[in-house]
Write a structure and sequence with these properties.
Length: 147
Amino acid sequence: KLRSAVEDRRREYGELELGVEHVQGLYEHVRETAGEMLEELRSLESEEREAGARWARGRAGLRQLQEEEAKLRSAVEDRRREYGELELGVEHVQGLYEHVRETAGEMLEELRSLESEEREAGARWARGRAGLRQLQEEEAKLRSAVE
């Protein structure tokens, strides 16, 4: 009976030893896995910090781009306003040009008319001068005849 009990206890002790070894193996595996998970967690935390920093830089960059966009939009509006004013100025200058052109045309016609009148007046003057000479010659003849 004792031998049988000792054998039973040895079998149980062997099984317990196997169980303890198995539990120790599981413990080591869990410990290694926990270490790997801890390293991965630290790596993820580091990546998260880097991503957060990139996000903050990206957000700051976005704000800067939005500010630059607002400045550019304002500059474009200023240029559009200036362009509109220039267009009005161009239209005004074109109107003045047309007016000057019409006035110059009218003045040119008037000048041609005056030149024609001047030629006619010159011709009348020349005829009047010739007539005056003729009268002076006749007066001289009559004076001579009277004397």
